[in-house]
C-alpha cells in the first residue's frame, strides 16, 4: 500500500501530507528560477550520484512518504537511523573537545614561505660540503704514510709549520675536522714534491695529521655536552606544560540551539543526516563546514544589521498551511521594476547586499520555528513566476547561483513543500526535461501550476483564509471584520450553472459575510428571505455582473429583527469552472 500511495505523489505532487525536508534540485533549474529559489536545496551532483540507487531511495520514500511519518523523536527512529544519530553525536563531541569548529587562522597561509626558504638553504650548504669533500678526496694520504714512515730524523722545522697551519685552519673548518686533516696532507705533499729534501717533514706532518682525529672528536663531545643543559632545560619545561589543564570543550550553537544539548539538538542533527542520506561522516563534514561558514559570514551579527526594506514585497512571510508550516512567498515579478532590479543586482556590491538580506530574512524566519521533536521546523515556499525576468538576466542568474550554493550547503531540510504558481510554458517544459534526473523524494516536494490552476493548487495546501487576496484568498492587511481564525468554505461552480449560498438567521442579529470568486466574471446578488410566510423578501445587493478586475472580495452585512436567511446567488455563465470562497458570522444585538 505504501508504494501505491507514493507513485501517485510523484505524478501528482499535491498530496496533502508532504515531506518536510528540503531536497536539492539541479543548478540548471535553480539558474532558470529566481534568487529566492535558492532556498530550494537541490544539488545536481547528488541527484546524479543517487541515480544508481533509485530503487533503495524509492523504498525509503515509501516508508516515509509524508512529513508525519518522518519522526524527529529519537526513540521512534529506525535502528539504523538511531545508530547514525549516536555516531554523529560522538564525532561532534570529539570535535568540540579538540576545538575543530574554529575557522583556520589567516596566518597559516603565510607559513609555507619560510619553509621553502629553509629547503633552499639546505641544498646550498650540502653542495658546498660536497665540493670540499671532492677536493679533499683527490690525494691519497695512505700511500704517503706507508712510504715515509722510515725516516724519523728531522723534526725541528716541522712543528713550527704544522702549528701555524693548524692554527689557521681549525677555526674555519672546525665543524668538519676530517677535512682539516686531508688539506694538511695535500699541502705538505705538494711541498714535498717541490723539495725532495723535505720529505721527512711531510712524513711527520702526515703522522701528526693521522693522530689528530681523536682530539678532533673532543669539540663534538664538548658541543654535545654544551647541548645537554638546553635539553635539561627543555625537559624541565615539559612537565610544566603538561601541568596546564586542557581547554574546556568548545560551545557551538546553530540557530540559537547548541549542537549537543537536548531533543532540539537531535532535530537539527537529523536535518543534516537526512540531507546526506544518513551517511554519518558526510553529515559531520556538512555540520562542520556550516558552523565555520556561519562564523566567517557573521550570521549572528547579521540579525541586527539594517539592510533596508526595499525587498519586502519580493519575499515575505504570510500565514500557515493546513499542517501548520509557515508560508514564505517569493514574488519574482517585482523585478520587472527596472529601478528595483538595478538597485539590487547592478554590481557585485549590490548583489552581495541582496545575498546578506536574503540570509538575514531566512535566519529570522528559522528562529521562529519550533525545533521540539513534535514541533514544526520546516517552511512552505510559494514561488510566483508571473512576469518574472527570464533566464537571460545575467545579474539575476549570478545572484541566484551564489545564493543557491550557500543555501543548499548550509540550510538542509528546511522546506516542506515547493509550490510554483503562474508558471510559464517554458518552465513547465524545462521541469519535464530534468524530472527524470531527480529522485522520487525530490519530485514529491515540487508542485508546478499554470496561471489557470494556481489558486486551486494553493487551496490544496493552504486554507483560503490564509492565502493573500492577490492569490485568490481572503487574507488582507489592515483591520478587517474577519481574521484567519474565521474559517472559509470552498465551492466549485460548474460551467453554465447557478449556485446559491444561505446564511440562516435565528434571532435579532447583524449578519456579516465575505465572498469572492477566483477570476469572477459571474453575476452576483444577495437578498434576505424571512421565515414567516407573510414576510417580504429584502434585496440586500442587486444582481450585477462582477468582472475580474472589479473587486477581489465583496464584504457586506445585513441587520434583521426576525428569523430568516441571507441568500447569495452566483451565476456562472462561462464555460469554465469557478472557485467560490465565502465565510460569514452573526452578531447578536439588543435594542
From TrEMBL:
Residues 480-586 form the GOLD domain. It is found in: Cytoplasm; Membrane. Gene3D superfamilies: CRAL-TRIO lipid binding domain, GOLD domain, N-terminal domain of phosphatidylinositol transfer protein sec14p. Residues 304-479 form the CRAL-TRIO domain. Its main location: cytoplasm. One of its GO terms (molecular function) is lipid binding. Residues 21-71, 79-89, 96-121, 143-152, 161-170, 228-237 have a biased composition (Basic and acidic residues). Keywords: Cell cycle, Cell division, Cytoplasm, Lipid-binding, Membrane, Transport. One of its GO terms (cellular component) is membrane. It comes from the Eukaryota. Residues 1-180, 208-251 are annotated as: Disordered. It holds the Pfam family GOLD_PATL1_C. GO terms for biological process: cell division. Coiled coil: none annotated. Belongs to the patellin family. PANTHER family: PATELLIN-1 (PTHR45932), PATELLIN-2 (PTHR45932:SF27). This is CRAL-TRIO domain-containing protein. It comes from Gossypium darwinii. The lineage of its organism: Eukaryota, Viridiplantae, Streptophyta, Embryophyta, Tracheophyta.
Amino acid at each position: 500500500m505504501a508504494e501505491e500511495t507514493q507513485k501517485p505523489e510523484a505524478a501528482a505532487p499535491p498530496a496533502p501530507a508532504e515531506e518536510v525536508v528540503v531536497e536539492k534540485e539541479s543548478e540548471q533549474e535553480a539558474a532558470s528560477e529566481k534568487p529566492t529559489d535558492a532556498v530550494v536545496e537541490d544539488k545536481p551532483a547528488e541527484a546524479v550520484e543517487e541515480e544508481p540507487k533509485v530503487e533503495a531511495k524509492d523504498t525509503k520514500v515509501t516508508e516515509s512518504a509524508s512529513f508525519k511519518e518522518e519522526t524527529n523523536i529519537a526513540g521512534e527512529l529506525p535502528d539504523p537511523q538511531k545508530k547514525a544519530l549516536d555516531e554523529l553525536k560522538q564525532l561532534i563531541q570529539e570535535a568540540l573537545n579538540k576545538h575543530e569548529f574554529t575557522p583556520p587562522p589567516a596566518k597559516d597561509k603565510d607559513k609555507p614561505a619560510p619553509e621553502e626558504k629553509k629547503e633552499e638553504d639546505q641544498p646550498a650548504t650540502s653542495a658546498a660540503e660536497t665540493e670540499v669533500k671532492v677536493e679533499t678526496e683527490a690525494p691519497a694520504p695512505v700511500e704517503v704514510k706507508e712510504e715515509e714512515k722510515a725516516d724519523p730524523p728531522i723534526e725541528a722545522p716541522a712543528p713550527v709549520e704544522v702549528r701555524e697551519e693548524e692554527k689557521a685552519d681549525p677555526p674555519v673548518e672546525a665543524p668538519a675536522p676530517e677535512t682539516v686533516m686531508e688539506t694538511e696532507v695535500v699541502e705538505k705533499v705538494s711541498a714535498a714534491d717541490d723539495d725532495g729534501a723535505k720529505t721527512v717533514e711531510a712524513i711527520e706532518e702526515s703522522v701528526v695529521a693521522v693522530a689528530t682525529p681523536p682530539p678532533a672528536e673532543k669539540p663534538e663531545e664538548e658541543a654535545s655536552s654544551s647541548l645537554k643543559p638546553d635539553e635539561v632545560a627543555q625537559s624541565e619545561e615539559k612537565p610544566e606544560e603538561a601541568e596546564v589543564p586542557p581547554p574546556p570543550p568548545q560551545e557551538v550553537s546553530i540557530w540559537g540551539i547548541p549542537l549537543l544539548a537536548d531533543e532540539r539538538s537531535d532535530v537539527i542533527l537529523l536535518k543534516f543526516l537526512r540531507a546526506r542520506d544518513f551517511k554519518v561522516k558526510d553529515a559531520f563534514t556538512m555540520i562542520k563546514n556550516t558552523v565555520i561558514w556561519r562564523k566567517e559570514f557573521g550570521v549572528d551579527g547579521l540579525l541586527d544589521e539594517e539592510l533596508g526594506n526595499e525587498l519586502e514585497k519580493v519575499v515575505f512571510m504570510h500565514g500557515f498551511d493546513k499542517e501548520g508550516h509557515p508560508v514564505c512567498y517569493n514574488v519574482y515579478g517585482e523585478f520587472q521594476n527596472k529601478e528595483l532590479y538595478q538597485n539590487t543586482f547592478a554590481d557585485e556590491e549590490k548583489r552581495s547586499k541582496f545575498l546578506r538580506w536574503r540570509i538575514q530574512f531566512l535566519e529570522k524566519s528559522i528562529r521562529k520555528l519550533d525545533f521540539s521533536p513534535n514541533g514544526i521546523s520546516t517552511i512552505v515556499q510559494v514561488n510566483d513566476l508571473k512576469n518574472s525576468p527570464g533566464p537571460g538576466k545575467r545579474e539575476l542568474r549570478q545572484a541566484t547561483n551564489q545564493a543557491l550554493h550557500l543555501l543548499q550547503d548550509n540550510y538542509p531540510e528546511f522546506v516542506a513543500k515547493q509550490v510554483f504558481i503562474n508558471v510559464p510554458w517554458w518552465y513547465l517544459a524545462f521541469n519535464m526535461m530534468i524530472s527524470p534526473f531527480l529522485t522520487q523524494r525530490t519530485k514529491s516536494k515540487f508542485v508546478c501550476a499554470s496561471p489557470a490552476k494556481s489558486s486551486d493548487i494553493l487551496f490544496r495546501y493552504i486554507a483560503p483564509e490564509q492565502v493573500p487576496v492577490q492569490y485568490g484568498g481572503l487574507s488582507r492587511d489592515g483591520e478587517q471584520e474577519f481574521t484567519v481564525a474565521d474559517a472559509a468554505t470552498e465551492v466549485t461552480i460548474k460551467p453554465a450553472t447557478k449556485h446559491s449560498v444561505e446564511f440562516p438567521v435565528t434571532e435579532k442579529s447583524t449578519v456579516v459575510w465575505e465572498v469572492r470568486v477566483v477570476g469572477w466574471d459571474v453575476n452576483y446578488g444577495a437578498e434576505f428571505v424571512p421565515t414567516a410566510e407573510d414576510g417580504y423578501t429584502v434585496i440586500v445587493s442587486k444582481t450585477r455582473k462582477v468582472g475580474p478586475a472589479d473587486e477581489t472580495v465583496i464584504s457586506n452585512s445585513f441587520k434583521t429583527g426576525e428569523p430568516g436567511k441571507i441568500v447569495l446567488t452566483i451565476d456562472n455563465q462561462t464555460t469554465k469552472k469557478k472557485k467560490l470562497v465565502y465565510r460569514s458570522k452573526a452578531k447578536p444585538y439588543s435594542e
